[in-house]
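Reviewers of the previous submission asked for a worked example of the structure-prediction workflow described in the proposal, so we include one complete record here. The input consisted solely of the amino acid sequence. No template or homolog information was supplied to the procedure at any stage.
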Amino acid sequence: MHLRPHALATACACVFLSQPLLAQTESAATGGAEKVVVTATRGAKAVEKIPGAVSIINRQDIETQGLVSEDPSALLTLQIPGYAPARQKLTNFGEGLRGRNALLLLDGIPQTNPLRLGGREGYFADPMIVSRIEVVSGASAAQGLGATGGIINTITRTPTEEGTHHTVELKYGSQFHGDSASWKTGYMLEHKSSYDLIAYLGARNQDIGVDGAGRPLATESLHRAADVFVKLGKDFGPQRLQVMLNRYQADGFDDRVDVAGNRATGLPTTSQRGTLPYDAPRNEVRSASLEWTHNELAQGTATVQLFKQNFSARYSGGVIATFQDAAIAPVGTLVDQSEIEADKWGLRASWVRPDLFTRGLELTLGADYLDDESQQRLTQTGRVWVPPMTYRSLAPFAQLEYEVGPLTLRGGLRDEHSRLKVDDYNTLAYYGSRAVQGGERSASKLVKNLGAVWRFGNTGWSTFAAYSEGFGSPDVGLILRAVNSSGRSVNNLVDLQPILIDNREVGVTWRGQRSSLSASVYRSHSDLGSQLVVSNGIGSVQRVPITVRGFEVTGEWRPLPDWQFNGSYAITRGRTASAAGGSLDLDLGARSQGPDKLVLGALWRPAPGWRANWTQSVYRSRDANEGKFSGRTALAEHFQGYTVADVSLAWDSPWGQLGAGIENLFDRRYITYYGQANYSGTAEDYYAGRGRTLTLSWRRTF
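From that input alone, the workflow returned the following structure tokens.
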């Protein structure tokens, strides 16, 4: 990995002005309390004892960002160095983590749909119900299918104070232009006695908004959203039984149509009032779990979770070349749109036994089972685009950790067994109406992880080294729907082989009384990766090797009790091949990795109960694959870079918490990273970023 001089200089500056986001750091907001994470190890573990890049986004971080924007991708972009820039759309496609896809979880329930990864999985919970977000960067052997780039586990809230409490939240935002207002209202009930209960009902509405030049933004963004959430738990001595239900729905615009832009002149895609000839885009996610824990089972802690998740995502439609069929309507006149449906259920079980045989030796045993049924259909004509796919996996695992003095060693194995079943089906007319014979595919892989953390006495310094393997699936739906030759069978489609990742990382951390610093360098490689190639606006999968190298540095400085400066810098360098088995002759594109990213911020507490925050995000310019082609499709990507600043102010007043936030403080005019860099971009998806937006909020608990 070659780093430019200006990149190294910026990284060095972050040593003194940066925010602790990796595992070996600690926020001032915690007051020095030990941070504990469960996602990375399947059991409660202090982050400084985990070999690898593990981050915690706490409740204060979520509330602070919520004063400016409730876009979940914007929060991850600011808090996680290796996360690509937010799309600011209903879709999160292209928002990779370290150049690969991340496994999204809600209380451990998978929200990602690896069989048909449609980029609509980012919206699944209202920020009000979230306690914290645990992020494991890099391939992981701890969780399973889909964690090739990392794991992002959203943990919901649980009542902590005795008695009954009510919380009301109101928000109003505007850009002071027509069709730019937004509002949100939410109510939360919390109760804790012999049992604990938390219930939430919230709704949000957002008009189309404008860019920095006052032009209406394009559609395909969130218009309305609603969340209903209930969690009920009861302790029985050392045992606990808990049930969680969550239903989240997000709708796009049904009364606006896009107006094409012009990439050559820099005119972004906009929108205007109009009637859609198809149904409005929509996301609907329902998640449920029943969890049992026992803290004194055979001198260890056992956890068993039964979960269910139903997902549907309806996309924008139109007269799309791939959807045309002369047997239904004259070519060039047929309007259609697609919808992904995925139903999952599964079981997660683990048992953690500390001090096994000797002090400091910890054993973790467990198994995960997943049943996933996914498909993609065309809603206006009832046709099948991606046939129903049934995926089942069973993965027993074991982890050992030994802590002796300043050294922590951790290693484990996960035995992945999976089976994919598809019945006979026919492709669309665009692919030749090919009859494809169904069949079954199975795969087995023993994935490993090994790591160590060494703490250098009382100096505040520590270092870690980690090796971890990940097991993932290519986008099976894209492969199946694109079959365009006769006599094919699911049993012999080579591209259905699983993705196997090995991730290697070393890092160093220093933590002092008023400052802290973390830095790490990593390499992620897959011999048979999964790359999306786009033609006529429709993607297909290419199985090629992929290598991603990167460097991340984060830190914090607290010169005075009421002042805190922070920041992070990330460099991601991905390479792939233009043909299966070929050399790494291409840069990884914007569909997978983001540009170099610098995030700087400051927190000031001018008086008791007051907090002022400033954040500045700098996305550096990037040029990739100049003069490179896939067939006749040019792969060149160009990104000019941009800088955006946000500010917020909060006051814990006698009447509740009052807040004000301004997104894009200087009303910067810019085209989003993916809108600029996507090599297959058209005049219809040249998207501008949101202009200056003021949001006022009030929240009170009584």
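DSSP finds five helices and 40 strands in the chain. We consider this example representative of the routine output the project will generate in years two and three.
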